[in-house]
């Protein structure tokens, strides 16, 4: 009821939710209440309220991916992550705004209008999971689900001052997620603190036979580190910093990251300086792969089965990706663009894993610049520049998270932590210790 009343007061101006089903949520809550009163066993998410990004299938909600293409498409089944939530007695309250088909970093490309940043009114909340981050930041839910292809969970978490986690590729099922770029996409939780993230991961990380890229992995108990004190979680850990990452970042943002590094040292962690020579390669590699995979993913939106023909109704950025993806994947160009992008990707993956070989974590800013004012006109390359520090984790398939590091004149700034594949727990431990 509290969340619903905040939504009633604030959603009109923030536009975090595209659809809310308060009655259904209250019904679910009552059922759980009854179970508790009857002394029945309840699930691990019992009573927690979830907001779901508009590109994850939830039965009977409009799953539009914030595009006119799918404005009348109702989720016809529950994605595996939704079943995971419902099976553990979590409550689904509604569907959140996003960039059209998750292709963006500002949530301005939504067909349903942009979302305001609750922590810095008038500025973008980041994207593409801007509605999910804004819902968490304005206390409209406990946990929100986002998807992260090149930063879309971490970037809006950073701009809105919340916590967001992109798990290892394959750790969380993608079944029921509308693809942006299938070899990079990953679903994950956003929350107001590290315990929300721990609780979210504990129920979301499962093997799913319905997703052929799902990992078979006996992941650890993500709730365990909540019992430890900060020193126990950080002492003796090696945390790398990379000069090439701070070189591309606004100095004020670097200043806040430095404060987090001091805290790591105070808690007994060791800071190690490392080099990464491929920063310039990251955005071109990411976008070439994204264009081609997105072009392929959108061929089903031809106006016959799902909604309208995408090219007839989509926005500028989505059309750019479809046209570029179709162009560069032509057979005669594949050696020139796509194959080279795949080679560059494997180079980036190898090099980042080499860095991670000698350390526990890499710490960096999440986003290199502060969020712009809603409506400011940015060139595509200026918009893509937001992503330079987040795309690496997706290209390499490694886990990465963003937590609030502080703020610059009231505008939140995030600290990003990255680890080796399947070392998601190490990131969570550091987040818990540094919070
Ligand atoms: N901003 C990046 C892009 O536009 C990342 C998007 C995402 O992670 N979904 O592709």
From TrEMBL:
A biological process term (GO) from this entry: translation
Protein name: Glutamyl-tRNA(Gln) amidotransferase subunit A
Family matches, as InterPro entries: Amidase, Amidase_CS, Amidase_dom, AS_sf, GatA
Every Amidase domain range: 1-427
Entry's Gene Ontology molecular function annotations: ATP binding; glutaminyl-tRNA synthase (glutamine-hydrolyzing) activity; transferase activity
Enzyme kind, highest EC tier: ligase
Keyword terms of this UniProt record: ATP-binding, Ligase, Nucleotide-binding, Protein biosynthesis, Transferase
Known function: Allows the formation of correctly charged Gln-tRNA(Gln) through the transamidation of misacylated Glu-tRNA(Gln) in organisms which lack glutaminyl-tRNA synthetase. The reaction takes place in the presence of glutamine and ATP through an activated gamma-phospho-Glu-tRNA(Gln).
Organism classification: Archaea, Methanobacteriati, Methanobacteriota, Methanomada group, Methanobacteria
Signal peptide range in chain numbering: none
Matching Pfam families: Amidase
């Amino acid at each position: 009821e509290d969340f619903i009343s905040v939504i009633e007061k604030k959603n009109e101006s923030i536009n975090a939710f595209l659809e809310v089903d308060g009655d259904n949520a209250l019904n679910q809550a009552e059922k759980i209440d009854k179970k508790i009163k009857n002394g029945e066993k309840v699930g691990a998410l019992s009573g927690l309220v979830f907001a779901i990004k508009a590109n994850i299938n939830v039965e009977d909600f409009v799953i539009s991916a914030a595009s006119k293409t799918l404005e009348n498409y109702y989720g016809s089944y529950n994605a595996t992550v939704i079943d995971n939530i419902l099976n553990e007695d979590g409550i689904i309250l509604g569907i959140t705004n996003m960039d059209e088909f998750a292709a963006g970093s500002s949530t301005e490309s939504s067909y349903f209008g942009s979302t305001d940043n609750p922590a810095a009114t008038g500025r973008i909340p980041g994207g593409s999971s801007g509605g999910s981050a804004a819902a968490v930041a304005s206390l409209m839910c406990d946990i929100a689900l986002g998807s992260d292809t090149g930063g879309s969970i971490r970037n809006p978490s950073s701009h809105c001052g919340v916590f967001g986690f992109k798990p290892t590729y394959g750790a969380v099922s993608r079944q029921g997620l509308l693809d942006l770029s299938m070899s990079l996409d990953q679903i994950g939780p956003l929350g107001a603190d590290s315990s929300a993230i721990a609780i979210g991961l504990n129920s979301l990380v499962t093997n799913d036979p319905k997703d052929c890229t799902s990992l078979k992995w006996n992941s650890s108990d993500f709730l365990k580190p909540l019992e430890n004190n900060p020193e126990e979680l950080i002492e003796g850990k090696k945390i790398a910093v990379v000069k090439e990452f701070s070189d591309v970042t606004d100095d004020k943002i670097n200043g806040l990251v430095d404060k987090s590094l001091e805290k790591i040292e105070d808690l007994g962690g060791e800071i190690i300086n490392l080099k990464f020579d491929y920063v310039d390669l990251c955005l071109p590699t990411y976008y070439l792969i994204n264009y081609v995979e997105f072009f392929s993913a959108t061929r089903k939106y031809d106006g016959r089965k799902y909604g309208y023909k995408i090219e007839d109704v989509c926005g500028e950025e989505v059309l750019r990706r479809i046209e570029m993806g179709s162009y560069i994947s032509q057979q005669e160009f594949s050696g020139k663009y796509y194959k080279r992008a795949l080679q560059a990707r494997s180079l980036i993956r190898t090099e980042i894993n080499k860095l991670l070989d000698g350390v526990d974590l890499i710490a960096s800013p999440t986003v290199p610049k502060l969020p712009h004012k809603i409506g400011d006109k940015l060139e595509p390359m200026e918009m893509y520049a937001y992503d330079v520090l987040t795309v690496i984790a997706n290209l390499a398939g490694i886990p990465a998270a963003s937590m609030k590091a502080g703020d610059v004149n009231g505008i939140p700034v995030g600290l990003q932590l990255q680890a080796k594949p399947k070392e998601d727990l190490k990131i969570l431990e550091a987040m818990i210790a540094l919070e």
